[in-house]
Amino acid sequence: MTNNLLQGKKPLLLYIHGFNSSPLSHKANVMVEHCLQHRPDIKVLVPQLPSFPTEAAALLKELVEKHQPDYQIGLIGSSLGGYLSVWLNHTYGLPAVVVNPAVKPYELLLDYLGEQCNPYTNERYQLEAHHVEELKALDVKKIERPRDFWLLQQTDDEVLDYRQAVSRFAGAKQTVEQGGDHSFVGFERFTPSIIDFLAL
Asked: What is the 3-state secondary structure (H, E, C) of the chain?
């Protein structure tokens, strides 16, 4: 807080949801409720991301550039949102907590080509090969400042190989728990620590 006040900036938390998810996701709601109850000074943004990577990246870029002059921004990225958080960190230097993050989503999504339906929004859309290439274009080859990241990872993630994330975020703060699943069971245990790590 003091750091933010010294800079004359207000705190902002940007939550980035995963593939076929939405602002209605459990972890997003946990953070919104925590900030409402304990840190109402924090502006919380949980945008509904477009289903296609280039459009999602453009929206995130627009939000960051709009708020960065007046706000100290911290990121939470879940799954595909973790991948996008690495890109935002590379572009703008923002700290991020990444939760069961996707490391190579452009490989994973090859299995999802074709018609998709977002279970939260009921949006139907076609995922095509060029969308996977758009995602690959956002890849950051090397994380230059691992200290900007905190990895929250559970080993029984049924969607992603947790070892990829442990390797990707070598040198970052890491909390790797045995068991759990892709949703990250018990996420609410970490809410105050996340705010502290992001210096909001």
From this structure: CHHHHHHCCEEEEEEECCCCCCCCCHHHHHHHHHHHHHCCCCEEECCCCCCCHHHHHHHHHHHHHHHCCCEEEEEEEECHHHHHHHHHHHHHCCCEEEECCCCCHHHHHHHHCEEEECCCCCCEEEECHHHHHHHHHCCCCCCCCHHHEEEEEECCCCCCCHHHHHHHCCCCEEEEECCCCCCCCCHHHHHHHHHHHCCC
Q: Helices 53-67 and 80-92: crossing angle, nearest 10°?
A: 50
pTM, two decimal places: 0.94
Token duo for residue 161: 């190989």
Note the pLDDT of residue 8: 82
* pLDDT digits 0-9 by tens, 11-21: 999 999 999 99
CA quadruple 135, 138, 140, 146: dihedral sign: negative
pLDDT digits (tens, 9 = 90+) for 151-186: 999 999 999 999 999 999 999 999 999 999 999 999
Angle at 30 between CA 29 and CA 32, to 5 degrees: 60
